[in-house]
Amino acid sequence: MRLVTYVMAATLILDQVSKFFVVQVLDLWSRDEITVLPGWFNLRMAWNQGVNFGLLSNSSDLTRWGLIALALAISLWVWLWVRKEPHRVIVSVSAGLLIGGALGNVIDRLIYGAVADFLNMSVPGLHNPYSFNVADITIFAGAIGLVLFTGQEKTP
After folding, report:
1. Which of 31, 61, 86, 135 could form a disulfide with 101 if both were Cys (CB 3.0 to 4.6 A apart)?
2. How many Å apart are CA 108 and CA 21, to the nearest integer?
3. Whole-angstrom Cα distance, residue 65 to residue 61?
């Protein structure tokens, strides 16, 4: 469980430090967009009140608190499940990534009322309107890791 805790803490810190730096220090909050690699990579501010791609974003407190409760419930369930029995290192890392990312987005919802998304990647000639953050990356990577590598330690 130590590995899950370390990965979770590192993920949470990286997510929150990156958000603080981009939103507050670079002042993306008021600048809206900073071009880093033209046509490929921008920092574009987006306040996501819903889930991926803005789904379920209706600006209601019910949605905000419901998503906070859901993220905390999933994080607790993954934590308890991983704690039950020994798992391979990749499963522990995946669980830590998922939990750390989920908690990072919970902190945003508590502080700002929405998740701070700011990473935007495109291909020259094609405009991508969506932004994401470090927590989104780790949640996705953690979930994929859990799906791909869980259960491989059991014998038939």
Report:
1. 135
2. 14
3. 6
Rounded CA separation 9/97 (Å): 9
pLDDT in tens, the chain (156 residues): 899 999 999 999 999 999 999 999 999 989 989 999 999 999 999 998 876 545 555 667 888 898 999 999 999 999 999 999 888 999 999 999 999 999 999 999 999 999 999 999 999 988 888 999 999 999 999 999 999 999 766 544
Could you tell me the CA-to-CA distances from 96 to 18, 42, 69, 74 in Å, in that order? 18, 28, 19, 12
pTM over 0.85: yes
Q: Assess contact for 95 and 79: CB atoms under 8 A.
A: yes
**Catalytic one of 27, 61, 108, 136:** 136
Look up 136 and say whether it is catalytic: yes
Pairwise CA distance, residues 69 & 105, whole Å: 12
Catalytic residue among 15, 61, 108, 117: 117
